[in-house]
Amino acid sequence: MLYFVSKLITVRFSEIIGNKEIKQKLIRTANSGRISNTQLFLGAEGSGNLALAIAYAQYINCTNATNEDSCGICPSCVKYQKYIHPDLHFTFPTVTPIKTSIEILENWREAILENVYQNDYDWLSTIDKESKKQGNITAEECRDIFRRLSLKAFEAKYKVLIIWMPEYLKTEGNILLKLLEEPPVGTLILLVANDSEKILGTILSRAQLVKIPKIKDEDIIDSLINQKEIEPKNAEAISRISDGNYNLALQLIDVKHESYSKTFMDWLRECYASQKDFKKVLDRSEEFAGMGKETLKSFLDYSLQMIRATFIYKYGDRSTLRVSDEEFAFFDKFSKMMNANNIENISKAMGDAIFHIERNANVKIMVLNLSLYIGTQLKSA
Ligand SMILES: [Zn+2]
User: DSSP secondary structure string, 94-123?
Assistant: First the structure.
């Protein structure tokens, strides 16, 4: 409890980074009285879509809201800000043997109080320390949603259910179709997702889409400088790598960026030479495995951005590239070994590695395989 008091993290619109236009739009629709009962807040990781969904629900239920924001001090806001309002319900992925969200609601509250920009891997690793289990929204949880929503609203104008990461709803999601199509009177269902292609089509078609754009660089820089007290130069470097993903930006705060770019360049050289010098690649895999999963993931995120940037360097408008002189020189050399085909293959392999990293017990082998694969791809051009 002390934690809540000391951190004072709230989710009023004014405290969410960037996305000014979307905030104004949400406030307008709330005030127009044309509130869709089922909405999908769709935005990439780190876009703040969960924060915005909560802020929107808080705004709608605030008894003293202005045209700018919820008041933050009425009884409804006070409970919303601690995520303990009795008419605010959450559904999120869990791991076995946990069957329903309500069983670990306390952990969930703590996790989003600490970082409302977290991604599904961050969350699943907090409830599954070994990161071995697959996340899931269970059929039991779907049935529990009916139970919770059938209760009369305690005190709010709107009872709100936030379903975070409906990507984890497999066929059991069909249990919810009728509910999503026609929620009980006075009930608002907000789905908060990263990737519409991974959501059941039957669910997708029942929700009104609210598209949340990536956070702009200048907003990330501004927040890093003013809220996290990061040096302007470092804030710029972080925003460049995080590419609108504030969750990644937060993870990168403690990382030395110059060392990322050097490690990346050395690593690709070693991949290229892996047939001649296998030991170097092996040592590197060991080093990566020892980094810790979060750091490795953010490093691979950076690497993926660099590979994508190579594509732009080679085929696109170079003036749009936001890279350092050193990185530019690197592109000049390495782009000779790159073509559209191997860039796509390497990007995909890196994307897969990032995706599996949290759930993979043997990171060393995974990185070794990735390195050897990149080596073959580079040679193929
Ligand atoms: Zn209020």
Answer: B-TT---GGGGHHHHHHHHHH-TT--HHHH
